[in-house]
Structures are given as structure tokens and as C-alpha cells.
């Protein structure tokens, strides 16, 4: 049986930090894409930040709805484009946010829906569990995905992301 | 390396369809994952339910958590005719749902599911089917008048623990 859940590429941020984590020239031979990544940024005093996303270099035509559980309350908001979260320098050292982005039918000719699961766990009173429903209202096949840093802050060393391709046959 | 995430079957709707069934599912896997993409409905009902082994009895229950972008809701259904697993589907934009069915082949325990949907809502469902039979078929059904829209895709994967 062929392997159908294939690691396409992995990016690990080096000591200098990085503004973006980018996967380009994505093969068009899979059915779905999954990005699993852990991230931390270098904003001092902050507990965490939202990361943006670009498909094919574009951050336009995105919309989405987010569901957040903080450990004591539940809320929902609209933020777009959103690709998950990163912990910041204001919380427990060496703790990174974990995120999973699922993009089905990325080569199709319909608008691209995607989902994000994110956890911002740290040793503090509040830590978030997040579900996100995202939509890129463009019909182009996705050939590149970029996870964008929060504001002007960089992803720190050891942030890492892996792009997987899934085939349905 | 052995494959541990294998496609079992896939279908892309060529026309409006009320339900999609994957049958004769092998018991060779540990878990099942149903991935629904380009998901939309035509008219009448933005929900979808999952049923097992063609059981249309009131043997299911579920709990829902949703975010609309401004408000949150949680609902509960008991003794229903399926596990509510997707809601907030649109007739225009295309949604996504991932439904996990754990330990589906055992004949000892009731079967549980976890689903997440990315539609006009961000949300999740957990559900149970009160039956100890091994799951050999999975049906995802839209109970509205229109059914799932053309181009909606459904792929069932089998996941092996080893």
C-alpha cells in the first residue's frame, strides 16, 4: 500500500529568527494539505499573538470565525487571515504554541475552506484552545502557503513547521 | 515504512445528493477519519448527521460547541437518529469537516466520534452511538430538502496504530 500521508517539507527557524515560514512550489499531486507547526515569537511582555497566513502570496479575500476557550470562558470572534497562534516571551520559557492547519481540495476550482486547531498552553491561569473556520474566497489552486509573523515580531529559534500531503487514492 | 493513514474510498458529488455511504468497511484499522471538503448544501438544512451500519433508530446522542464570530452556543441532542456532526454549511461558500471515529471495529464498547467543522461556524461535536457492533458502514446525511451540493467531496481514511 502506498504511503498516503507524506511529509513534503519541514522548516525549522534558526537562531536569527524568522518573519515568515513559507512552503513554496507545493506539488499538486495530493488531495489535502496539513501543516503542523509549533511557534513562539519574541514580543517581550506578551502572552501570545495571532499569526497570519497567505495562500499564493496573497493575504486578501480571507474571512473566518474563531472559537476560543480560555479555561474559564468561551468566546467567538472574526479574525482573518488567521493561521494559529504563537506564544510570546511573556509566558513560560521554552513553551511553544501547537497548531494544525487542514486544507482540503487545495488544487480544486472552488473557494478554499480550511480549519485551524490551536493550543496556547503555558504555566499560567489563562491558556487558550482555539478552533478556527477559515475561507479563502479564491478558486486558484494553492501552490504556496506562508505563515506570517505577528505584527513586527519574529518567530524565534526552534519554531518548526511541517507540510504534509494526503492522497485519497 | 508501512502506511498508517490509508484512503479507503472517496466520492465527489456530481449532483445534489442527500447522503453518502461508505460500506463494507474493513476492520483492519484502528480508527476512521472522514474528511469532507468543498462542502455545501442546496436548501433546507445546514446540518449533517452521521449514522452507522444503516441504523436509523434513535440510538445516538451528541454535544455541540459553536462560534459564530460573535457568539458561542452549545447544544445537546439525545436519542436522535444520527450524530449531528456538521452544521453551519452554506449554499455558496465551501466548508470543511473532519470526523474522527475511534476504535470503530471493537465489539465491546459503544462508538464515539469527534468532529470539527469549518463552515459559517467554527465548531466541534462529540457523539456516541449506543451500539457495540463493529462499524462496517458510515453514512453522512443532510436531512434538508436539497441535500449536499454538487462538488462536495467525502473521503474515508483508515488509521492504523501500528
| Annotation, overall tally of beta strands of chain B | 12
Uncertain parts of chain A: none
The overall number of domains of chain A is 1
The geometry of chain B reads as globular
The CATH architecture of chain A can be given as: Sandwich
Element-level helix/strand string of chain B: EEEEEEEEEEEE
User: In percent, how helical is the residue content of chain A?
Assistant: under 10%
Summarize the helix and strand pattern of chain A as letters. EEEEEEEEEEEEE
Which assembly state applies to the chains in this document? heterodimer
Largest interface, with counts of residues having CB < 8 Å to the other chain, equals:
A-B, 38 and 40 residues
The shape of chain A, in one word, is globular
Mean pLDDT across the residues of chain B is: 93
How many structural domains can be distinguished in the coordinates of chain B?
Answer: 1
Q: Gyration radius of chain B, to the nearest Å?
A: 15 Å
Biggest β-sheet description of chain B: 8 strands, antiparallel
> Reading side by side through the largest sheet of chain B, how are the strands ordered?
1-12-3-8-9-10-5-6
CATH class of chain B: Mainly Beta
C-alpha termini separation of chain A: 10 Å
Catalogue the unreliable spans of chain B: none
Question: Which SSEs are present, and which pair or pack?
Answer:
The complex is a heterodimer of chains A (169) and B (162).
Chain A: E1 5-12, E2 20-23, E3 32-39, E4 48-50, E5 52-55, E6 62-69, E7 74-77, E8 85-87, E9 97-104, E10 112-119, E11 129-136, E12 145-148, E13 160-166
Chain B: E1 5-12, E2 19-22, E3 31-39, E4 48-52, E5 60-67, E6 72-80, E7 83-86, E8 95-101, E9 111-118, E10 122-129, E11 138-141, E12 153-159
Antiparallel strand pairs in B: 1-12, 2-11, 3-8, 3-12, 4-7, 4-11, 5-6, 5-10, 8-9, 9-10
Describe the model.
The complex is a heterodimer of chains A (169) and B (162). By secondary structure, chain A is an all-beta fold. Chain A has one domain (5-166): Sandwich (Jelly Rolls), CATH 2.60.120. Chain A has no helices and 13 strands. Chain A has strands spanning 5-12, 20-23, 32-39, 48-50, 52-55, 62-69, 74-77, 85-87, 97-104, 112-119, 129-136, 145-148, 160-166. In chain A, the strands form 3 sheets. In chain A, strands 1-13-3-9-10-11-6-7 form an 8-stranded antiparallel sheet, with no helix packed on it. In chain A, a hairpin with a 7-residue loop joins strand 9 (97-104) and strand 10. The mean pLDDT of chain A is 93. With 162 residues, chain B is an all-beta fold. Chain B has one domain (5-159): Jelly Rolls (Sandwich). Chain B has no helices and 12 strands. In chain B, the strands form 2 sheets. In chain B, strands 1-12-3-8-9-10-5-6 form an 8-stranded antiparallel sheet, with no helix packed on it. The relative contact order of chain B is 0.38. Classes of the chains: A mainly beta (169), B mainly beta (162).
Amino acid at each position: 500500500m502506498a504511503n498516503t500521508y507524506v511529509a513534503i517539507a519541514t522548516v525549522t527557524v534558526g537562531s536569527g529568527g524568522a518573519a515568515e515560514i513559507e512552503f513554496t512550489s507545493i506539488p499538486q499531486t495530493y488531495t489535502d494539505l496539513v501543516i503542523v507547526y509549533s511557534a513562539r515569537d519574541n514580543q517581550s511582555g506578551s502572552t501570545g499573538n495571532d499569526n497570519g497566513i497567505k495562500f499564493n502570496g496573497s493575504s486578501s479575500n480571507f474571512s473566518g470565525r474563531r472559537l476560543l476557550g480560555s479555561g474559564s470562558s468561551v468566546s467567538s470572534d472574526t479574525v482573518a487571515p488567521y493561521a494559529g497562534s504563537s506564544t510570546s516571551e511573556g509566558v513560560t520559557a521554552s513553551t511553544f504554541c501547537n497548531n494544525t492547519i487542514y486544507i482540503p481540495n487545495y488544487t480544486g476550482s472552488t473557494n478554499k475552506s480550511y480549519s485551524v486547531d490551536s493550543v496556547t498552553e503555558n504555566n499560567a491561569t489563562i491558556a487558550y484552545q482555539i478552533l478556527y473556520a477559515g475561507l479563502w474566497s479564491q478558486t486558484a489552486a494553492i501552490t504556496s502557503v506562508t505563515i506570517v509573523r505577528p505584527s513586527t515580531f519574529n518567530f524565534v529559534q526552534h519554531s518548526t513547521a511541517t507540510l504534509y500531503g494526503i492522497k485519497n487514492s | 515504512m508501512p502506511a498508517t493513514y490509508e484512503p479507503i474510498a472517496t466520492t465527489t458529488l456530481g449532483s445534489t445528493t442527500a447522503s453518502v455511504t461508505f460500506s463494507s468497511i474493513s476492520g483492519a484499522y484502528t480508527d476512521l477519519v472522514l474528511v469532507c471538503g468543498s462542502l455545501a448544501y442546496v436548501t433546507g438544512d445546514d446540518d449533517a448527521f452521521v449514522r452507522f451500519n444503516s441504523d436509523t433508530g434513535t440510538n445516538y446522542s451528541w454535544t455541540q460547541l459553536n462560534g459564530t464570530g460573535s457568539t458561542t452556543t452549545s447544544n445537546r441532542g439525545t436519542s436522535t437518529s444520527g450524530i449531528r456532526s456538521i452544521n453551519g454549511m452554506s449554499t455558496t461558500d465551501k466548508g470543511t469537516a473532519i470526523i474522527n471515529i475511534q476504535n470503530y471495529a471493537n465489539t465491546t464498547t459503544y462508538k464515539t466520534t469527534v468532529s470539527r467543522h469549518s463552515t459559517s461556524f467554527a465548531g466541534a461535536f462529540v457523539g456516541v452511538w449506543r451500539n457495540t457492533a463493529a462499524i462496517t458502514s458510515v453514512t453522512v446525511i443532510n436531512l434538508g430538502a436539497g441535500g449536499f451540493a454538487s462538488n462536495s467531496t467525502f473521503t474515508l481514511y483508515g488509521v492504523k496504530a501500528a
